[in-house]
Write a structure and sequence with these properties.
single chain, alpha/beta, Lyase, Ornithine Decarboxylase, Chain A, domain 1, TIM Barrel, 2 domains, 9-stranded mixed β-sheet, 8-stranded parallel β-barrel, 13 helices, 26% strand, binds ligand LLP
């Protein structure tokens, strides 16, 4: 459920016409609905309301400060994967005690920042990382709270690029080695092994892989306790899918109930790291049609948004529904077209061979479900300034990120003096 719908043939975000936002701030633009964000957070949290838990929004999905703050106001924390995300999270006012830090490639300087901030937990993904973290923490006279991210070798049945819980993926420590590494961690001066973590992939549309992974964690947790390692946090990761097209992912309530069923007797504080399910359908990207053209066997709708703005279709062949911001008055003409952007690559498309309402140049289109991994994966490729972001709250709307300008594009670039002078 989201708050983007037509009223009298016009697409609204909550009570604001998308057209009004575009007239003020231009295209391409990301528009988020606060009502939807909050609703998703509450629905996701509901099943866990009677057990100790923390929802750590996986902020790589959408890292705008305003959005982080909305979840933080609801009691949420964040799952971070870089020093940059830590910086953003702290700037958004998120309590460091609600931050977990995942990722296979944490650098010493990033560890130091997180140790100084005294974050809740590092999700450690290798033995070598554990050793480095031990050194950095010991040097500061601290103990880093740690969960090992285990790789349970479960097939999440999703796109190969976003599957993370298989042996062949780079993530986590192999489940067979986990017990030994915990025993080792327990002896390290700078490490306090307090948690157990896994995340098997993203855009999962079945419950079974989640449950298989949690069952594996359950067994390991028992063994750890038997071995005297006192695990207090069980982090089950994120990954719950959303409907982009025809898929029917489990409802968050069913997911929550099933996970809870498996862990409720384990005396742990549960941590979840949802990303997409909280923000995906809470955001759209609006774009304007520039031109149309026809080749011998194809129609192209050329719009002003491109793969640098929304990379998912190009990178994963991901489907995003594309609809008109103003519906046609009379009967709609249909067209089958590739919706493409201005970038100089044939891989630059938002949709391929898509049957859609035939738009005219100048018309606005909404690329739906763009809230997750939309803006956060955008780039400046082809020297295109990144889009603006707007948050809608009932009948009000707020610019939450200015559109970049050309000066922003060259910030930090330097022509060495001798090259300037050479002629
Ligand atoms: N926790 C960890 C450790 C993760 O790596 C991820 C996502 C999440 C949680 C959140 O997963 P979610 O609930 O959003 O599925 N760019 C891709 C998705 C990459 C996901 C990476 N990790 C896409 O656009 O589909």
């Amino acid at each position: 459920m989201h708050h983007f719908s037509y009223k009298n043939g016009e697409l609204y975000c909550e009570q604001v016409p998308v057209r009004r936002i575009v007239e003020e701030f231009g295209t391409p633009i990301f528009i988020y609905s606060r009502g939807t964000l909050e609703r998703h957070f509450k629905i996701f949290e509901e099943p866990f309301s009677n057990v100790p838990h923390l929802i750590c929004f996986s902020m790589k999905a959408c890292s705008n400060l305003a959005i982080l703050r909305i979840f933080s106001n609801l009691g949420g924390g964040v799952d971070i994967v870089s020093g940059g995300e830590l910086f953003r999270a702290l700037r958004a006012g998120i309590s460091s005690q609600k931050i977990v830090y995942s990722g296979v490639g944490k650098k010493a300087a990033e560890m130091d920042l997180a140790l100084d901030a005294d974050i809740l937990m590092f999700n450690v993904e290798s033995e070598e990382e554990l050793q480095l973290l031990n050194q950095r923490a010991s040097a500061k006279g601290k103990k880093a709270r740690v969960a090992l991210r285990v790789n349970p070798n479960v097939d999440p049945l999703t796109h190969p690029y976003i599957s993370t819980g298989l042996k062949s993926n780079k993530f986590g420590v192999p489940i067979e080695q986990a017990l030994d590494i915990y025993m080792q961690a327990d002896r390290l001066e700078g490490i306090d092994p307090v948690g157990l973590d896994c995340h098997i992939g993203s855009q999962l549309t079945e419950l079974a892989p989640f449950l298989e992974a949690v069952s594996i964690l359950r067994k390991l947790l028992r063994k750890l306790r038997d071995g005297g390692v006192e695990i207090r946090y069980l982090d089950v990761g994120g990954g719950l899918g959303i409907p982009y097209d025809q898929e029917t992912p489990p409802a968050p309530g069913d997911y929550g109930a099933a996970v809870l069923d498996l862990v409720s007797d384990m005396s742990v504080s549960l941590i979840m790291e949802p990303g997409r399910v909280l923000v995906g359908n809470a955001g759209i990207m609006a774009t304007q049609v520039l031109y149309k053209k026809q080749s011998s066997d194809k129609n192209f709708v050329i719009v002003d948004a491109a793969m640098n703005d929304l990379m998912r279709p190009s990178l994963y062949k991901a489907y995003h529904s594309i609809i008109k911001v103003a519906k046609d008055d009379g009967p709609t003409r249909k067209i089958v077209a590739d919706v493409v952007g201005p970038i100089c690559e044939s891989g630059d498309f938002l949709a391929r061979s898509r049957e859609m309402d035939d738009p005219d140049p100048g018309e606005l289109l909404a690329v739906m479900s763009s809230g997750a991994y939309g803006f956060s994966m955008s780039s400046n490729y082809n020297s295109r300034p990144r889009s603006a972001e707007v948050l809608v709250d009932q009948s009000n709307y707020y610019l939450i990120r200015q559109r970049e300008n050309y000066e922003d594009l060259i910030r930090g670039e330097i022509i060495p003096g001798y090259i300037l002078e050479a002629k």
